[in-house]
Amino acid sequence: MVAEKKCAIVMLSGALLSACNMEDSQDVSPFLIADTVKEYELTWYDEFEGSAVDESKWQYRLDCKHWSKQQKANNVVSGGVYRILLKKERVLCPKNNWLQPGQKEGDEPAGVVQYSGGGIISKRLFRYGFYEARLKTPVGAGWHSSFWMMRYLQKTENSDSLTFDPLASPLNSHIELDPFENDSIDPTHFQTDAHQWKPKPGTEDEGRTQNKVGTKQIRFNDGTTLTDFHIYGMEFTETHLRYYFDGELISETAFPAARYKHNDVNIWLTGLGTFLGNTQAIDDSALPEQIQVDYVRFFERKK
Description:
Elements (H helix, E strand, L loop, with lengths): L5 E7 L2 E7 L18 E7 L11 E3 L3 E2 L2 E3 L4 E4 L2 E12 L19 E11 L6 E8 L6 E8 L23 E10 L5 E9 L12 E10 L10 E7 L3 E6 L2 E7 L2 H4 L5 E8 L15 E13 L2
Parallel strand pairs: 6-9
Antiparallel strand pairs: 1-2, 3-19, 4-9, 5-6, 7-8, 8-9, 8-19, 9-18, 10-15, 10-19, 11-12, 11-18, 12-13, 13-14, 15-16, 16-17
C-alpha cells in the first residue's frame, strides 16, 4: 500500500513549490486547475527523500546515444532531489554510430564520446492514469531533458546496456508518450507528443515505421524559463492524451486505443548530450551541470 502523505503546491517568489508531509497523505492529488483532480488517487511515487536512487523502483539508462554515454554514477539523490549529472568526460562507445561535434558527413564515427549523462527507468509498468513530475532543466546548450513513457526492451548482450530502439522491438505495435522534452539550447520551449511505433497495416498509414500524434511546441515569451522548477503532467485515457504545465491544460489530442493499440509503459527520466534543437556544440563553460527532479507521481482513477 502506498504510504500516505499530504502535499500542497504553494507559490513563493513566483515559483511553484511542493510542500509534503511524508507521514500522512491520502489528500495527494495531481496538480490540476480542474475538477478532475478529485477523480484520481496516488498509487505510485518517488519523492527522492533518500540518499541514493531507490533501486527497488528504478533501473538505469545505460547507453551511448548522440553525444553522450549514460552512466550509472551520474544518477544521484540528495537534498530531496534526484539529479542527473551532466559532465564533460571521454568515454568509449565503440558501437555508437553518431558523428561527434567537429566531425562532418563522411567521417567515420569516432567510437568515443566526450560527455556523459544519465537516466532512470521505472521497474513498474503503467497504463491509464495521470503522470506528473516536478523538474528543472540544465543551463547551457547541448542537453536533452525528458520525462516520458515507453516500455523498455530486453537487455543487449552487454548487460550494462538497455536496448530501447523501438524499431528493434519484437512487438508489432507499441507506444511512446512524451509529456516533456526540452533541448537546453532553448530554455523557453518544450515539446509534447506521442508515437505509435511499427504500426500494423491499417492502424493509420500502412508501411510506416511510426505514427507521430498530436505534436505541440510550447513556447514562452513572458519570462518563464524551464531552468526553474515546473510541474509537467499528462493524463492518459482509453481515448485521449491531455498535457499540463503547472496545472494548466496546454494540449489535448485524440489517441484511441482501437487505433493506436495501447500497451503498458515504463516511466523514464533522462538526460543526454545531443545535436537536437539545431545544437552545434555542448556549452562546456556551463559544465558540470545537472537535471533536477523533485518528484515523480502516478495517479489512477478512483474505483
